[in-house]
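ingest -> validate -> predict -> emit
validate: passed (alphabet ok, no gaps, 194 aa)
predict: started
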Amino acid sequence: REEWMYQQEVENINPAQHAVIIVDMWNQHWCPSATSRVAALAGPMNKTVGLMRNYGYQVIWAPSQVTGFYNNTKVRERTLALPNVTVPEPVFKEVPPFPINATTDGGCDVPAPQGSPWKRQISTLTIDGDKDFLITAEDGPAQQELWNILVAKNITNLIYMGVHENMCIMSRPFAIEQVTARGFKPSQISVVRE
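emit:
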């Protein structure tokens, strides 16, 4: 079948085996409604991420195109200090069409000129330099940095949070298509929806 299926289950888990990957919660987007969505999500997301961190979940920040803002910060240095591990070779599978086709308008619901106004993650979100990691979105290094974390912390399950599921959470170099191509099963991946 070529459609998206929703699955909900309740089970007991070990938080230490889970990583929460926060994707592209930028300070500004070229689409005004996307900027508003991020701002509305950031407060509740920050509370959720803080609780998850306190329960032992590993937090990984994945802010595409703005990693440079975090150069020489504790969270970035922690990430880069991990030893390199072997990243599995990808075996990509065909993905069903996305529920929303954003190829012509970038997914914006109002007319707006496209661009890249983002400079950092929205400041509402708290990054803990002593506990969290922050990875690049550059193809190759992104997969390496993510796998370094997953191996070092014995992570076997991934929880994605952020915006634009059809683009960022699915298709970035650290996203669901990449990790499933490298061996993660659907049962090891979940998405926290807004």
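Residues 21 and 65 are 16 Å apart (CA to CA).
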